[in-house]
Amino acid sequence: MKITISQAPNYNEETVTIGAWLANKRSSGKIAFLQLRDGTGFMQGVVAKSDVSEEAFQLAKSMPQESSMYITGKIVEDARSPFGYEMQVSNIELIHEAIDYPITPKEHGTEFLMDHRHLWLRSKRQHAIMKIRNEIIRATYQFFNDGGYVKIDPPILTGSSAEGTTELFHTQYFDEEAYLSQSGQLYMEAAAMAFGKVFSFGPTFRAEKSKTRRHLIEFWMIEPEMAFIDHEESLEIQEQYVSFIAQSVLDNCKLELNVLERDTSKLEKIKAPFARISYDDAVVLLQEKGFTDIKWGEDFGAPHETAIAEAYDKPVFIINYPAEIKAFYMKPDPERSDVVLCADLIAPEGYGEIIGGSQRIDDLSLMEERYQQHDLTGPAYQWYLELRQYGSVPHSGFGLGLERTVAWLSGVDHIRETIPFPRLLNRLYP
Ligand code: ATP
Ligand code: MG
Ligand code: MG
Ligand code: MG
């Protein structure tokens, strides 16, 4: 019977075969311990000289790391193993003998590991992070599908910019100039007017010129957009969504969180509702904390976000930023037009901005005014204006950065480990 490591609990005391790679091994005299991995998990294979052919025993002792094999034996429960089961090996059929494997994560610097990202992904730690990433994606689809949202895919090649022009990737589109999408938002608004509640999940591109541990050049965003939903209602949806993915990771990634030594008591606190602090109050708070560089009207950077979030043990919304530092489409607060109905959701523990969201301008003449101020002209923007001409309604949406969320829930310091093949300043390979 051919099974995967993840199926082992269903085959206790049975003899099975697993296709596996050798992650690690140690041997002493008449016994060899093989750390096996097959993509679904990790498991120890115990090879006793007396249980196998001389050939198989020699193989077990001499096979280099990352050699591949079909390995056969009896599955037995083993309380000491973090995975609960091990195999008492009866035969090994070598598929491919690896040459000397260059990488053992603990002994190399970051640049070396990044150069070998295609191999580094095989490590237990990277495996755990990618499984958590996968769980967040799975839970995202569940949350929005159950909530009656339609998944809509905005274009990647576009002629319009949603978030300003400084971080755009330019590309040739036959005779025209085009950009790689920085955000699907403008298109998602069109989609919300057609389908009511929509969400997207796709890659976005930003030519971020500074090196930080929170910025990738290519990252994945989840962008819900909802018709007939105001700012306050949108904040509640964000709280529910973030709480749901945190709970899903806690429920379904116990092994992975354990491998990463994540303090799960921190994740258990991520439950709606989340606190809110106004931008105005945040500026005062920062000045009190000694940030002399921040004045009203300036955007916050990572150190500011971290300092604001310090007072909270779950995410906190910073609401109502000055209109002048936010995107052109955000709706002004009806009580005071110098701030907009927006929020950034800041994660605790210094992980920074996870979500940016807002209620959108629904008034045609105000949008026309913004077009003038921001010099938005031509066919790339005309269509978006038309959304305000045909049954304009209050609507809101937000964008959650997947990799920031993976970093936070996994407890990983640097965003480069949260995506299979990170694109960073000065790194396009592998
Ligand atoms: P920041 O202030 O950290 O640069 P932003 O305000 O430019 O982020 P938004 O345009 O609001 O980002 O995008 C929505 C979300 O996408 C952010 O809250 C964040 O989670 C994520 N995000 C933005 N830029 C990046 C990036 N370069 N790499 C990874 N994730 C990002
Ligand atoms: Mg940015
Ligand atoms: Mg920001
Ligand atoms: Mg933002």
Separate helix tally: 13
State the end-to-end distance: 37 Å
Q: Can you tell me the CATH superfamily of the largest domain?
A: Bira Bifunctional Protein, Domain 2
Mean pLDDT: 96
Main location: cytoplasm
Enzyme class: ligase
Keywords: Aminoacyl-tRNA synthetase, ATP-binding, Cytoplasm, Ligase, Nucleotide-binding, Protein biosynthesis
Catalytic activity: tRNA(Asn) + L-asparagine + ATP = L-asparaginyl-tRNA(Asn) + AMP + diphosphate + H(+)
What would your notes on this structure say?
This protein is an alpha+beta fold and 430 residues long. The protein folds into 2 domains: 2-96, Beta Barrel (OB fold (Dihydrolipoamide Acetyltransferase, E2P)); 117-417, 2-Layer Sandwich (BirA Bifunctional Protein, domain 2), CATH 3.30.930. It is 31% helix and 28% strand. The protein is built from 13 helices and 19 strands. The strands form 4 sheets. Strands 7-11-12-19-18-17-14-13 form an 8-stranded mixed sheet. Strands 2-3-4-6-5 form a 5-stranded mixed beta barrel. A 3-stranded antiparallel sheet has the order 8-10-9, with no helix packed on it. The two termini are 37 Å apart. The relative contact order is 0.11. The protein binds adenosine-5'-triphosphate (ATP) and magnesium ion (3 copies). One magnesium ion (MG) binds at residues 344, 353, 356. InterPro entries: Aa-tRNA-synt_II, aa-tRNA-synth_II, aa-tRNA-synth_II/BPL/LPL, Asn-tRNA-ligase, Asp/Asn-tRNA-synth_IIb, NA-bd_OB-fold, NA-bd_OB_tRNA. It is found in: Cytoplasm. Its EC number is 6.1.1.22.
